[in-house]
Design a protein that fits this description.
Helices cover 19% and strands 36% of the residues. With 132 residues, it is α/β, with parallel strands linked by helices. It has a 7-stranded mixed β-sheet with strand order 2-1-7-6-5-4-3. It starts with a helix and ends with a helix.
């Protein structure tokens, strides 16, 4: 699981806080050899800080969300909120998926949040593939 502070450090080091990157969620599935495979990806279009659950929720509402909006959002947070976990919300019908890593594609100007779930043990997650 990754936290807001981890993401801030990663963005600073790997994209130099560029405000021009789109945000992408990439769903990973573990194969029989315990390697992760890309199971789908989708552009993130919404971000919400949920103070009650101490998390930053990334989602797919019809809004604009780039690294510019993302950095403005996290820059306004209090110090305690930097330890909030980062999760992806596909829909109300699916469980929240924790972010397990970050990546970037400089050519396409994409900043990626990697998410994974145990598809055998979590009810409703198998249909998440359809949403991505």
């Amino acid at each position: 699981m990754k936290y807001i502070i981890d993401m801030i450090d990663d963005m600073r080091e790997n994209i130099q806080n560029s405000k021009e990157y789109t945000l992408l969620a990439m769903l990973l599935k573990e194969d029989a050899q315990k390697n992760f495979q890309n199971a789908g990806e989708k552009v993130i279009t919404s971000l919400r800080v949920n103070h009650e659950h101490q998390e930053l929720r990334l989602g797919f509402l019809d809004e604009k969300a780039t690294t510019k909006e993302f950095l403005v959002c996290v820059d306004a947070l209090e110090m305690d909120a930097l330890m909030y976990k980062i999760v992806v919300k596909i829909s109300d019908a699916h469980p929240l998926m924790p972010v397990i890593g970050f990546g970037e594609n400089h050519e396409q100007k994409q900043y990626t949040f990697f998410v994974s779930a145990d598809f055998n043990n979590i009810s409703g997650v198998k249909n998440a593939y359809d949403r991505f």
